[in-house]
Write a structure and sequence with these properties.
This protein is 37% helix and 18% strand. By secondary structure, it is α+β, with helices and mostly antiparallel strands. A six-stranded antiparallel β-sheet has the order 1-2-9-4-7-10. β5 and β6 form a beta hairpin. The longest helix has 19 residues.
């Protein structure tokens, strides 16, 4: 299964965070055994995801699996839980009994919640034992419901949450919002003017908070948004709406972003 090209969400259950964490946690998810049996039919399978620069917890509730982060493949045991940054292509190789509880964060939010700089996590697979208390992981991995797991994690985040937003993190989040409001077409100089700042400052803050340049991050953000729209409705897709000169420009960006052509997959 391949992200965006195919609906990988259909084998998971999703939930939104509480209001206090909505600016930092994008979603919680958990494997759905029923949906996995329905769509995967007892086969071994893989899930490929493209770069997003969104730190993600993978808490293992099921069988061992392998995960490829960038060019390196890692074996994850049944008792192992990990954090990855998703700064490059990630592919998980799973068994029919795959069962993962996931927490996906917005860029920079891991630092706001836990004081962890995501810029240091590029292409790494970090054990959650180094980040979360052992007793919390033990409780989350017990045979309880999805909502109970979410409540445990949220309580921990809220206890550690620094209520005053860091200036650098807030600036980067505001820049991302401005880029989105500008139709995914604003240049660094355009953003600098809108934010009463400088292109140099924006570049420095992005590298400090996210771990990559604004040009690189916005290129991924635009490609993700445009490809999602294209897959959802090819006849209604207009490349100019996403800052592309024409379809050829869009196709070229998709290959750069995913390494694959848009015609290579079926939903």
């Amino acid at each position: 299964m391949v992200e965006i090209f195919q609906n990988i969400r259909k084998i998971y259950t999703f939930a939104q965070p509480c209001e206090e964490l909505a600016d930092h946690v994008e979603f919680f998810s958990e494997s759905s055994p029923e949906a996995t049996r329905q769509y995967i039919a007892g086969q071994y399978f893989s899930v490929k995801m493209f770069a997003s620069w969104t730190p993600t917890f993978y808490i293992n509730l099921g069988a061992p699996y392998e995960i490829q982060v960038g060019s390196k493949r890692h074996f994850i045991g049944a008792d192992e839980d990990i954090l990855i940054l998703r700064n490059s292509i990630v592919e998980r190789y799973n068994s029919p009994t795959d069962n993962i509880f996931t927490v996906k964060f917005y860029p920079g939010s891991l630092e706001a919640l836990l004081g962890i700089k995501q810029s240091l996590l590029a292409d790494k697979v970090v054990s959650l034992n180094k980040i979360l208390p052992a007793n919390l992981l033990h409780l989350v991995k017990q045979p309880i419901g999805f909502s109970e797991r979410i409540a445990l994690i949220e309580q921990f985040f809220l206890t550690n949450y620094r209520k005053q937003p860091d200036h650098y993190i807030k600036f980067v989040k505001d820049a991302i919002d401005n880029f989105s409001e500008a139709g995914l077409q604003a240049s660094n100089s355009d953003l600098a003017e809108r934010m009463f700042s400088t292109s140099k400052t924006i570049n420095r803050y992005f590298n400090q908070v996210i771990g990559t340049s604004p040009k690189s991050y916005f290129s991924i953000m635009r490609a993700r948004t445009a490809l999602t729209a294209y897959v959802h409705s090819k006849p209604g897709f207009i490349p100019y709406d996403y800052g592309y000169y024409d379809m050829s420009h869009f196709y070229k960006d998709v290959v750069k972003f995913t390494g694959q052509k848009v015609g290579g997959h079926r939903n």
